[in-house]
Amino acid sequence: MTGAARATEDREPVIQVRGLLSQFGERVIHQDLDLEVMRGQILGVVGGSGTGKTVLLNSIIGLKEPEGGEVRLFGRDRAAMTKAEAEAVERRTGVLFQQGALFSSLTVLENVASPLVEHTRLPKATIRELAEMKVAMVGLKPEALYLKPAELSGGMRKRVGLARALALDPELVFLDEPTAGLDPIGAAAFDDLIRQLSDDLGLTVFMITHDLDSLYAICDEVAVLADKRVVAKAPVAELERSDHPWIKEYFLGPRGRAAHKSAA
Ligand SMILES: Nc1ncnc2c1ncn2[C@@H]1O[C@H](COP(=O)(O)OP(=O)(O)OP(=O)(O)O)[C@@H](O)[C@H]1O
User: Fold this and answer.
1) Which residue numbers delimit the ABC transporter domain (predicted)?
2) CA of 32: how far to CAs of 36, 67, 69, in Å?
């Protein structure tokens, strides 16, 4: 069953953002921004550079306090959560940051194990076993376990970041430009992996991307950030018919047309 089929079958929202206001000083990044992401959905998030995609991600995961509005995760209002509730949400959530954010002095195994060390009291041997499983799950060979991030290619680093994001068996993952910097073949392989994980594990995915191929290949819906809010959220095929100038340029410009063609 595809994520889209699951999403319509089980309409429980995992992320709900209502009337979000985000500011840095006087500078308003989001105003009256609404967004809902359903369980099992892969949502692509697009928008011009500086429209606030990463700030939105940070506001949802609690790295940035909103100046107004409401963020609900798994039905709970983030602002009203106790510390224990926020920690429980953190355990159900994985994040792959834009630069991978791996610890450079730790091996692949230690990087992937770090959320398990931080959030569980499992014995060392179990943590090791679980981390090894995640490394295998993202398609890395056992030889990679003892390498440090500097010894890995960009694509391998992304996979390690994904393995770490999946360490606690999250229900929801946030990916900030996961295929940026990968060659087209590496990017397509990474897309397949995310789609497969979503289908197999029922993961909900919030994915910021500039990669049109990813949008066509794996996203159930795409949210477009412009004018400080989400101006559209729909399957790509529907967005192609939008009248919004940025969306038109994005999907119907030469790169958009090429991605459409190769997905067809
Ligand atoms: N800590 C901060 N202090 C001040 N301004 C910030 C901070 N973080 C982000 N901004 C500003 O918020 C705006 C949105 O930034 P953000 O990184 O979310 O954009 P983006 O849509 O993810 O862009 P890109 O596609 O280029 O990664 C930018 O203008 C940025 O300068």
Assistant:
1) 15-252
2) 13, 11, 8
User: Domain of 1: which CATH number?
Assistant: 3.40.50.300
* CB-ligand 1 contact for 55 (6 Å cutoff): yes
Domain count, the chain: 2
Ligand 1 atom nearest 22 alpha carbon: 12
Distance 54 CA to ligand 1 centre (A): 7
Q: What pLDDT does residue 10 have?
A: 59
Tens of pLDDT, residue by residue over 242-252, are: 889 888 888 87
Percent of the chain with pLDDT over 90: 59
Task: Identify the domain boundary among 169, 190, 223.
Answer: 169
- Which residue range(s) make up the domain with 260? 1-92+171-180+202-264
Same domain, 105 and 142: yes
Other beta carbons within 10 Å of 151: 12
Residue whose CB lies within 8 A of the most ligand 1 atoms, among 31, 45, 55, for a mutation test: 55
Residues 77 and 99 in one domain: no
ipTM of the shown complex: 0.97
Residue nearest ligand 1's atom 5 by CA? 24
Distance between CA 242 and CA 244 in Å, rounded?
6
124 with 75, same domain?
Answer: no
This prediction's pTM: 0.90
Examine the domain organization and report whether 11 and 101 are in the same domain.
no
- 53 Cβ inside 6 Å of ligand 1: yes
Residues 73/14, Cβ–Cβ less than 8 Å: yes
Q: Give yes or no for residue 262 having a pLDDT over 90.
A: no
